[in-house]
Amino acid sequence: MYRESEIPYFTILFERYQNLYTEIENTILTQRDFSNLIDLDNIRSQFNFFDIKLRLAFAIYEINLSQEYMQQKVGELRLCHLMLYKFNDLWFAYEAFVKLYNNLNTTSIQSKVIWLSLRTNLDYFNQQEIQNAILRANIELNLKFNTSEKRQHLHNYIQYCISEASNSQSNRLNRIIGKINIPDNVDDLEITDWLSLSYAVRNNFVHNGETTVTTPEFDYSEKKDLIIVLYELLVIISLKSTQKMIEDKINEY
Asked: Is residue 45 part of a domain?
């Protein structure tokens, strides 16, 4: 069984995250200015919309299929099936975060995959938990794709993703392919690489009907490994970014 609590920093971040709603409520109670009350109530309602989506991704822990229609999935295939749905629900929550951010801030996030870097939103990018999660994702990717055969399969899967991508997304995915040294290792991916790869998996699921077993040259065990790395990084980004954003907003009052 998969448990988010085993992700480094998850428990601490989620405990802090769960206090955000109370912090919004407490800030509302201290206000005397009616316009502030309206603003804070708007923050509360929009945060609640995001919160529901995020918790749904965390809450899915098992998928059971009726054997009347399909043979029950077991082992790594079962875990791959679970993680594919958890990951896509998490991406939808992440999209809700971007919408929340754009509604609450004067400057908006123009792209879901290139908003975190040394050049954009540096105050979010430099959060220690996010930096640690990026470092861990690169380590985990090399641990899971630790043979030339597996790295070749990863290369082929990303090449498959390119066939479904727009021009800008295709360029970003090609940059990732350039970092896969098939005989040796995978060079460190930057946060934009990770979010681009996550977006590619999401697009394959939504627009191309990708399932656990439909991808050429990338079996469900390898797909499961990749999705877990992507999922765990996006979990930390979503929790920490939301915490920072909400705390920054209520500190204005």
From this structure: yes
The count of domains in the chain is: 1
In a domain, 12, yes or no: no
- Provide the pLDDT confidence category of residue 76 given band limits of 50, 70 and 90: confident
Contact 167, 153 (CB under 8 A): no
d(CA 44, CA 34): 15
CB 53 within 8 A of CB 242: no
Minimal CA–CA distance to 198: which of 169, 241, 168, 163? 169
d(CA 12, CA 133): 14
122 lies in some domain: yes
CB neighbours (10 Å) of residue 21? 14
Residue 53: how many other CB atoms lie within 10 Å: 18
| HSE-up (13 A, CA, CB side) for residue 78 | 12
Structural domain boundaries enclosing 82: 20-64+73-250
Q: Is residue 47 included in any domain, yes or no?
A: yes
Q: Tell me how far apart the alpha carbons of residues 48 and 251 are, in angstroms, rounded to a whole number.
A: 19
To the nearest 10 degrees (0 to 180), the angle between helices 148-162 and 191-207 is 60
- Decide which of 205 and 13 is more confident: 13
Tokens matching residue 172: 């970003």
Give the max Cα distance, the chain: 65
pTM greater than 0.85 (yes/no)? yes
Residue 37 tokens read as 């009350």
